[in-house]
Amino acid sequence: MFCTVQYSKMIKAYYLEKCVVISLVLWKYFIIYHCYAGLNFSSMIFKVSRVNMSNVSCSENDTKEEEKEEILHYMKVINAFKAYRVTALRALDECERNYHALPPTHKKMIPGNIKAIEESKVCIDCNALVIKEITKFCNEMFINKSYKELAEHVPFTSSDSDKVKSTLKQIVRDWSIDGEEERRLCYMPIIDEITQRLPVSGNKEIHVLVPGCGLGRLPWELAKLGYFAQGNEFSFFMLFTSNFILNKTPGESEADYHQFTLYPWVGKRCNNISWKDALRAVKFPDVFPGSLPFSNRLSMAAGDFMEIYDAEAYWDCVACCFFIDTAPNIISYLEKIYSILKPGGLFVNFGPLLYHFFGMSNERSIELSYQEMVDVIQQVGFVIIKQDWSKGLYTNVPRSMLNYEYNCALLVARKPDPREGYGNSK
Ligand SMILES: C[S@@+](CC[C@H](N)C(=O)[O-])C[C@H]1O[C@@H](n2cnc3c(N)ncnc32)[C@H](O)[C@@H]1O
């Protein structure tokens, strides 16, 4: 066990009790040390590429134009990550200015307010250090492609900065103890259906695809159970971060790994019950990602799900969690899932119908009601074997005055296998 893991427990307790009295300067060094403590990389054994990440969207036939477009996009995401600190601090500036513009009598009423702003700056510094680690490994993250950063300035948008912040919250969902409840609510129903209906046994390889897998925890859990799991993602925000967590977080064994500290809710200015909630630290990863019992059973494929999966009848199962509604046309997703599943293959879906493209100008978004989706699933050729409803959360904020709770649909369907007769109702 790295001594820092023990040390950080002490620090956490200390942080909770004593932060009020620590001077800002000391506090800053304290947090930065806390974040970096134990990161003596030269002495760590990295299990390099525990998980193969391949960029399937690139091919030798890509035109120069397409290549250029991809590298510009890559740079935009890198730049948005690298600008996190400046962007987040700038957003706090206005809060600080507004505080200082208050009449002295009002300031006196809220002594904790400016303190929370000052502490937020330190938490932002700490997040920036984690982001530095995430971006360190991007250039060589794919087994089949490397990137060289461009010298020219590639601008990013405020929506890119928002994506950096939501990626930090996704770390909580997928790779922290704080995300345990979300994973129990959203991933467990999927895992239960797969283990019941497609149990791992003997030498039979069961191939499960998880499209839009975010930071990869669901395919990781499936690989841990012995499935040959592939996570698919097209967002560089997610891919950089999952590469860091899956392949680069240091450790030696299941019980011996390094945890990082993140402040996912820093900068959240509204609906706070107490500032302590917005400044709460979260540790990740909660498990050592390199501790999968089987090697080579987890892979990650980068690219658009609709474009990179062409092989028909390859997968035993396609498992979607909060993904099916990311399509501009959900019918095309369902047809694709049907075509890439083997006869007898399982489609498991869990999530809401939020329709990510709805209302976007220049996008042709088609929205189906749940009932329509069920009809389409059958028209595509599936036999539905289970439908259920249950609560789902997505990057929920603990102790906030605002939270979303989804009434998620769990739907399990099978692609009929003509050899076994129509129906295949199990
Ligand atoms: C709402 S998130 C869900 C992430 C994860 N499944 C979870 O439950 O935490 C949807 C994810 O799908 C990814 N995504 C959306 N469209 C995609 C596509 N066409 N191909 C691959 N990934 C896609 C997004 O980048 C995003 O990470």
TrEMBL record:
Alphabetized UniProt keyword annotations: Membrane, Methyltransferase, S-adenosyl-L-methionine, Transferase, Transmembrane, Transmembrane helix
* Superkingdom assignment: Eukaryota
Q: What is its EC number?
A: 2.1.1.22
Q: Transmembrane region positions?
A: 20-39
| UniProt xrefs under InterPro entries | CARME, SAM-dependent_MTases_sf
Q: Into which EC class is this enzyme placed? A: transferase
* Keyword DNA-binding found: no
Gene3D superfamilies assigned to the protein according to its UniProt record, in alphabetical order = Vaccinia Virus protein VP39
Whether Transmembrane counts among this entry's keywords is: yes
Q: Which residues form a coiled coil?
A: none
Q: Which PANTHER family match?
A: CARNOSINE N-METHYLTRANSFERASE (PTHR12303)
What family, per the record?
Belongs to the carnosine N-methyltransferase family.
Tell me the protein's name: carnosine N-methyltransferase
UniProt source species? Clavelina lepadiformis (Light-bulb sea squirt)
